[in-house]
Amino acid sequence: MPVTTKEREKVAAVFSGACTQKKVCPVKDIMASYGDKWTMYTVLLLGQHQKMRFNELRCHISGISQRMLTVTLRSLEEDGIVLRTLYPEIPPRVEYQLTELGESLLKPLLQLAIWAEENVGEVLKARKKYGKKNKEE
Questions:
Q1: What is the reported pLDDT for 97?
Q2: What's 122's domain CATH number?
Q3: Which pLDDT score, from 0 to 100, does residue 95 have?
Q4: How far is CA 81 from CA 42, 89, 93, 97, in A?
Q5: Strand blocks (E) in the chain
Q6: In terms of residue numbers, what domain contains 35?
Q7: Is 106 a member of any domain?
Q8: Percentages helix, strand, coil for the chain, rounded to the nearest 5?
Q9: For 35-58, how does the pLDDT look when each residue is reduced to its tens digit (9 = 90+)?
């Protein structure tokens, strides 16, 4: 589906404000925080399961280290995307869930995930074609 003129105008409006050291560029800032594979996958998992414990998350995210998951969750908590609830039990129990702000982030991430699922074949073909072209040069 082609991008409409109105949608292109929205993109232009986002980039029209000059980003300086004193003015945060929202697109750069958000993409730097949430554009990595671990953060996106964590948000998508919490959106699917609603509440998860640390080890549940770690088991579902193939390849993530304990430290990386800790850093990811702390960053999401700091930004108000994830709520961490500590239950005063023995042993202590901690659960993570998306906040209302996190739920609002889930929607565009789901759109991206759907796009990726629908287009992975085309992307892989393009990569293969690009690799062959560069080997010939």
A1: 97
A2: 1.10.10.10
A3: 97
A4: 11, 25, 20, 9
A5: 51-53, 82-87, 93-98
A6: 18-136
A7: yes
A8: 65, 10, 25
A9: 788 998 999 999 999 999 999 999
Pairs from 56-63 (Cβ < 8 Å, separation ≥ 24): 57/96
The amino acid that residue 5 corresponds to is T
Count of domains forming the chain: 1
d(CA 45, CA 61): 9
Amino acid at 86: L
Among candidates 55, 53, 56, 33, which has minimal Cα distance to 102? 33
- Tell whether the torsion through CA atoms of 131, 133, 136 and 137 is positive or negative: negative
- Looking at residue 103, what is its pLDDT? 94
Higher-confidence residue of 132 and 80: namely 80
- CA distance linking residue 80 with residue 64, whole number of Å: 22
Residue type at position 123:
V
